[in-house]
């Protein structure tokens, strides 16, 4: 007899669905697992045998062959224990045949108790995308209640509870899942607006951050030490709209796989890696494989403080995700595509001593050139907003606080709706969206400044964002003026 079950496994980069097939046939008693299991999976034979005995279940006599499909990647850990046990129970006709609606994620203890597995949220999201009816997990497996919207989960203490649950049929499962969903606990969604609302004055910088946030335009802020560029860059994330539940859960799952369970929050992630970051740390990979900072910052902000201190190779690796909003990683003949739709914000000193254009610069021309060359031209070309911060706009007691993060965020949300793209950078606006004076100015700038196609498109994109922040669909002349000034490479 053949029995099957559905589970999933985390490969370090991706969550992948695994279908378990178990065949029980007469013959010399033997229990083997094929389909690239590692030693922990192979050891599940011992756990399953003991769990059966301690749950009062007869272990099938004869030859048991378990096949884990697809067979083209290695299965690690104890995540598949419960699914293997269920497939054997189905093969032995102790449970009804698989109708493809249930999935199982738990480790088995010798006692027959279920134990939690790692990366359960990411695995559950992967299973949810396969339109399953319910997921069986260990009682002690923490899952955020939000997960129930995508895949109802049934939490069981013991193997015998799972068996009773599966026998109970869809209605009993739905009832159990509902109870579990409301009973499970999750950390409060974080709602910190940080220090943004404490920034006095700096209206130009706040506007700049709003434009970057609304249009997802990468931003580099340049200025001498102490001008507040890191503080401003850190605050950019507070202007991004809340994530939807699915994206928030996916962000939780990615961070869980990389750093251990984080706090579940609908606020977008902020990643600020140290400049010693390697290429693998930036885009993902390594051994064991892990997601990179660009994926951990997906739908949030990637802050590179002191951009020119990063290794050139690490910065060069950013070019692909900046263009494609995803990274493609190859490993052992398989490729994984990870999301990387982040907003890049970087800071830098204008020169090695940090004072060029602001005070007395002690650097030699060659040193300044070498300093800027640490960051490749193609990367800088992909950062449309490169801004020299103004010392004059330093906070003063008389200056107003200005709009709060919440107010700006609602304007930004509206702007994103106007731009018609919630998850991608706005396409440069078509000429028809510029009114006549705006179009005339744009053509003039293009001819007079001999702008490349890339730069013209960036100016158009920024102008479109500026109009959208003002609640308009039509780009006007002042929008193009402001965009051209912002795209100006300043006093470098
Ligand atoms: Zn200098």
UniProtKB/TrEMBL annotation:
Keyword Nucleotide-binding present in the record's keywords: the answer is yes
Annotated keywords: ATP-binding, Nucleotide-binding
Pfam families for this protein: ChlI, Mg_chelatase, Mg_chelatase_C
Ranges in coiled-coil conformation:
none
Q: Which GO terms describe its molecular function?
A: ATP binding
**AAA+ ATPase domain location:** 215-393
InterPro entries from the entry? AAA+_ATPase, CHLI-like, Mg_chelat-rel_C, Mg_chelatse_chII-like_cat_dom, P-loop_NTPase, Ribosomal_Su5_D2-typ_SF, Ribsml_uS5_D2-typ_fold_subgr
Q: Would you tell me the protein name for this molecule?
A: ATP-binding protein
Give the source species.
Alicyclobacillus fastidiosus
High-level lineage: Bacteria, Bacillati, Bacillota, Bacilli, Bacillales
């Amino acid at each position: 007899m053949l029995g099957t079950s559905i589970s999933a496994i985390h490969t370090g980069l991706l969550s992948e669905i695994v279908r378990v097939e178990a065949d029980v046939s007469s013959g010399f008693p033997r229990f083997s697992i094929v389909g690239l299991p590692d030693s922990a999976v192979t050891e599940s034979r011992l756990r399953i045998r003991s769990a059966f005995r301690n749950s009062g279940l007869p272990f099938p006599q004869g030859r048991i062959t378990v096949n884990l499909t697809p067979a083209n990647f290695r299965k690690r850990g104890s995540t598949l224990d419960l699914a293997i046990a269920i497939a054997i129970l189905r093969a032995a006709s102790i449970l009804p045949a698989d109708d493809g609606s249930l999935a199982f994620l738990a480790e088995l203890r010798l006692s027959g108790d279920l134990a939690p597995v790692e990366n359960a949220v990411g695995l559950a999201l992967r299973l949810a995308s396969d339109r399953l009816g319910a997921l069986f997990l260990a009682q002690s497996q923490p899952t955020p209640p939000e997960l129930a919207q995508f895949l109802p989960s049934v939490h069981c203490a013991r193997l015998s509870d799972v068996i009773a649950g599966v026998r109970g049929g869809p209605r009993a499962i739905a009832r159990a899942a509902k109870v579990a969903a409301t009973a499970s606990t999750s950390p409060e969604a974080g709602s910190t607006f940080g220090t943004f609302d404490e920034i006095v004055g700096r209206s130009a910088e706040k506007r700049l951050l709003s434009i970057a946030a609304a249009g997802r335009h990468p931003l580099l802020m340049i200025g001498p030490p102490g001008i507040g560029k890191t503080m401003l860059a850190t605050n950019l994330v507070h202007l991004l709209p809340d994530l939807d539940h699915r994206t928030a859960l996916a962000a939780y799952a990615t961070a869980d796989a990389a750093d251990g369970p984080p706090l579940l929050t609908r606020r977008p992630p902020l990643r600020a890696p140290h400049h010693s970051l390697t290429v693998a740390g930036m885009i993902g990979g390594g051994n064991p494989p892990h997601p990179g900072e660009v994926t951990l910052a997906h739908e949030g902000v990637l802050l590179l403080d002191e951009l020119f201190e990063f290794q050139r190779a690490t910065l060069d690796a950013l070019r692909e995700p900046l263009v494609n909003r995803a990274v493609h990683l190859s490993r052992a003949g398989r490729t994984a595509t990870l999301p990387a739709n982040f907003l890049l914000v970087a800071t830098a000193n204008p020169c090695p001593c940090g004072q060029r254009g602001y005070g007395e610069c002690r650097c030699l021309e060659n040193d300044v050139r070498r300093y800027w060359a640490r960051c490749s031209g193609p990367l800088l070309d992909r950062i449309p907003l490169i801004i020299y911060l103004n010392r004059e706009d330093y906070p003063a007691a008389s200056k107003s606080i200005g709009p709060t993060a919440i107010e700006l965020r609602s304007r930004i949300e509206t702007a994103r709706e106007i731009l018609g793209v919630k998850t991608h950078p706005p396409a440069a606006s078509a000429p028809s969206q510029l009114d006549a004076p705006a179009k005339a100015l744009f053509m003039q700038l293009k001819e007079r400044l001999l702008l490349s196609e890339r730069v013209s498109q960036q100016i158009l994109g920024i102008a479109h964002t500026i109009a959208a922040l003002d609640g308009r669909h039509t780009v006007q002349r002042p929008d193009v003026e402001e965009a051209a000034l912002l795209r100006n490479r300043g006093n470098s």
